[in-house]
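Chapter review: from sequence to fold.
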Amino acid sequence: MDCIALYHVAFENLGTFAAPLEALGYRITYQHASQRLSAAQWRDADLIVVLGGPIGVNDVALYPWLADELEGIKLRLQLQRPMLGICLGAQLMAFALGGEVKGRAAGKEIGWSAVEIGEHAGPLQHLRNVPVLHWHGDNIRLPEGVASIAATPGTPCQAFMIGEHALGIQFHAEFEPAALEQWLTGHAVELQHAGVDIQRLRDDTERHGADLARAGQAVIAEWLG
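The token string follows.
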């Protein structure tokens, strides 16, 4: 089986999700989102994962290739083919469904905290009471008929599912603790502007990273299994 992982910055990759994907028999191909996928790829790939990044769905004028990415995501959703969106990927999915993505009134949510998991959250149940890594400044407003299945204060939609074929996760359930320093340097300007305590991020990653890795792998294994 083929898995195409569309990335926006190289260090925001599949992280801990790669191992369970490979264990289930997926061959992973990474491609930068600016390199346009064909309609056949959007249609026929066994799984497409749209990863995170520091740009947003409202930045099409600055990054015109986002329009092509959104069209591909819309096609994939219409065909009800398996797709996972993480952070920016989840925002793009929600937007393609007719939702909105707007700046978070409370400012950026960067750091570790647990997520309130809904009653009908499917595989996300593995993350109940498990602190996860948040790293976003936008909020998803889902279209009518699509329900949020996870939330934190100030972020009413942290995840959503469309049938059994699509899962959007705003937080970073895939985060690989060993990659932290890549994230810290890659997002250095954002962290400085947001006034984030970098040492606290390191300490909290040391404290919670292994638990998230185990729970995140359980999420992806159950969703695909």
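Two observations follow directly from the output. The chain has one domain: 2-224. The chain has a mean pLDDT of 97.
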